[in-house]
Design goal:
Strand content: under 5%
Number of strands: 0
Structural class: mainly alpha
Helix content: over 70%
Radius of gyration: 21 Å
Length: 309
């Protein structure tokens, strides 16, 4: 009799957790790039209505959380998704204004000018996202905007060869070098730039380092620490996968293109989220991301060079 009661209590406790997890996954997928991809790639339909539809859905979810008790823990998550959409919409509008173009240039300008404009836009989004998280009453530690414990032990992952005793000082360094090396090899095989072009592109290295620094910060802040700050206290390690897939789907139109790009970015997002949660800080996820971005932006700079020009 006592055993049956305990099982019933465990089941009652599990049901809200399962519902919360399912709701978080559903809202993440609906608010990710996935609906846009499906409409464009399969149905070749307009996506103009998606943003107001998403905002309406999230507004309804926030209203629902006022009366439905079990969904209330996701209120911060809904707020963060709204903040991401509205801040990106605002900064995209600002970046199209004449005053912005006169200072930072147009998106179709040469490499340095166009990338500088893009990173300033994303930095604006990051600043607004920090303001949104502060408005929620979160501390910097809640959304991981702290160095964290760089020597924290990593949770073991047998299939990746990560042992229980592995400190993030060693794992972060090794992952950064391995991911960056793999990215360089992929970019070289995909683009086959000549030695002359690669040598010419070395002149862009100071700009590449600046852009990699900014891009890694902006993406980690907007698409990882904000989502983990909202979900990790509610769903635990499940939040790492939700943030990772949101990040990965957003790279469908990146390099590499399509499903391969989504899988690669999602795996990277999982590793970076793992680093952020286990060290309770920003450093290793930013550092690994930064190293990979150095390789990517270097090859983007090389691609902007006209051979013999």
């Amino acid at each position: 009799m006592h055993h049956t009661s305990a099982s019933t209590l465990n089941l009652a406790h599990a049901k809200p957790e399962i519902r919360l997890t399912a709701a978080a996954w559903i809202f993440m997928l609906l608010c990710s790039l996935l609906p846009t991809i499906l409409l464009l790639e399969i149905f070749h339909a307009s996506t103009d209505w998606l943003l107001p539809a998403r905002l309406g859905l999230l507004g309804a979810a926030l209203a629902l959380s006022l009366v439905v008790k079990w969904i209330r823990p996701l209120r911060g998550f809904f707020f963060i998704l709204i903040a991401i959409m509205l801040t990106e919409l605002l900064m995209n509008w600002v970046s199209a204004q004449p005053f912005w173009v006169s200072i930072f240039g147009r998106p179709d300008a040469p490499f340095v000018q166009s990338m500088f404009s893009a990173q300033m836009t994303r930095l604006g989004v990051s600043i607004l996202m920090i303001a949104a998280m502060v408005a929620l009453g979160w501390t910097r530690q809640r959304f991981y905007l702290a160095r964290g414990d760089l020597r924290a032990p990593a949770e073991p992952v047998a299939w990746l060869g990560i042992n229980a005793s592995e400190p993030w000082t060693r794992l972060g360094r090794n992952l950064g070098l391995a991911i960056t090396g793999g990215t360089l090899l992929f970019l070289f095989l995909a683009g086959r730039p000549s030695a002359g072009v690669l040598l010419q592109s070395l002149a862009y290295i100071p700009a590449v380092l600046l852009f990699a620094t900014l891009n890694a910060f902006n993406e980690e802040l907007t698409y990882r620490s904000s989502l983990l700050g909202a979900l990790q206290p509610v769903l635990g390690r499940q939040s790492i996968w939700i943030a990772a897939l949101f990040f990965g789907i957003g790279h469908f139109y990146g390099v590499p293109y399509g499903i391969v790009g989504v899988l690669m970015a999602s795996f990277l997002g999982w590793l970076l989220g793992k680093a952020m949660v286990e060290t309770r800080g920003f450093f290793w996820s930013w550092f690994i991301h930064f190293l990979q971005d150095v390789a990517i932006f270097w090859f983007m700079a090389a691609g902007s060079i006209t051979p013999g020009g």
